[in-house]
Specification:
Blueprint (H helix, E strand, L loop, with lengths): L9 H6 L5 H5 L2 E5 L3 E6 L6 E3 L4 E2 L1 H20 L6 E9 L9 E10 L3 E9 L8 E8 L6
EC number: 3.1.2.-
Pfam families: 4HBT
GO molecular function: hydrolase activity
Length: 145
């Protein structure tokens, strides 16, 4: 079965209100390249995990990184293809600074017939001082990309 290949535009995708969970988190498009996507998650008190410190919970950061790395797969494929997160490992290095926007950048560095390999990082203003690193894989549910 042939699947039509529609050129994927991450900026248009995010502006259209698509992205479900990402929309509820307030994720916004930031930048992209041929195999990477970057988005921002502005600070929002609804996302606080520790009310005493004001630190954003880890779940929204994980969701943002899942979206950024997923979009990097579509960019590398130059089209939208259904896929599922098979594994996404997150190494949290430090808490996000309260009040700051969190930036997430995902990169797809290899695609095989059925698996896409991704990596990325999240930071709150300085990429040299990341909040988290991620590494993962996405699987094509039909068995091919």
């Amino acid at each position: 079965m042939s699947i039509p290949n529609f050129v994927f535009d991450p900026e248009r995708f995010m502006k259209s209100g698509a992205g479900g969970h990402g929309r509820h988190l307030g994720l916004i498009y930031s930048a992209h390249g041929p195999d990477w996507a970057e988005m921002a998650m502005p600070y929002d008190p609804r996302l606080i995990g520790d009310p005493e410190s004001g630190v954003i919970a880890s779940g929204p950061i994980l969701s943002m990184m899942d979206m950024a790395t997923s979009m990097s797969v579509w960019l590398k494929l130059n089209g939208f293809r259904a896929h599922a997160t098979l594994d996404l490992r997150v190494d949290y290095l430090r808490p996000a600074t309260p009040g700051k926007t969190v930036i997430g950048r995902g990169e797809c560095y290899r695609i095989t017939r059925s698996i896409a390999f991704v990596r990325g990082q999240a930071h709150d203003g300085d990429p040299a001082d990341p909040l988290a690193h991620v590494a993962g894989t996405f699987m094509a549910p039909e068995g091919y990309f």
